[in-house]
Amino acid sequence: RWIKMATTDLGKNIHNAFSVVFNTYQSIEKLMCACQSDEVKQKYYLPTEKFLRYSSDQYWAGWLYWSFILLYQRYADGNCMENGWIDAPVYAVEINVDAETCEEPKIYIGKYEYKDICSWIPGCSPADHYGFYDAMHNDELFEIESAGDIKVSVPVDEKVSEKYWGLKKVTFKEINLVDVNADNYYDKIFGTIESLS
Length: 197
Fold this sequence. Notes:
Largest sheet: 7 strands, antiparallel
Helix content: 25-40%
Mean pLDDT: 92
Shape: globular
Low-confidence stretches: none
Strand content: 15-25%
Radius of gyration: 19 Å
Order of helices and strands: HHEEEEHEEHEH
Distance between the termini: 63 Å
């Protein structure tokens, strides 16, 4: 009987855990939809409307998404080129729920500066997640320094810069995900983009 009870409790715990994950995903979806609203699109160009994420059928950590990245460019910085990009910084908004990356769920907002966006090919795949994620989290490939509430990340060498499409520098901030709601998301996220611009 003890084993049966423990097994039943374990099963309920698993269901409850996934219920929390799915409810969190629903909230994240609402936030991402708000961040791609018509109001946002009037001021910001979205190089891709798909969110970038790490995914893998081969490794269990890729079976659930824990980092969601949306990309933006400012219309104030120029016009869209034939390759589908504006010759200006790219802004990444990452929603991160990975306990190994941050103590509590965060939104990371970064300004990415590149050497030559004009030479890029059109489009951005969801699998290009690493190209924006690593610069804010991988301190083996990037030198990340803090200056108050702003962090600056630069590739450790030219080889890393080229691997990340000619990345020169990332300037980014973080805010707590739980502090963002339907009333303040625009100011907190897009206000931060404007402050970094």
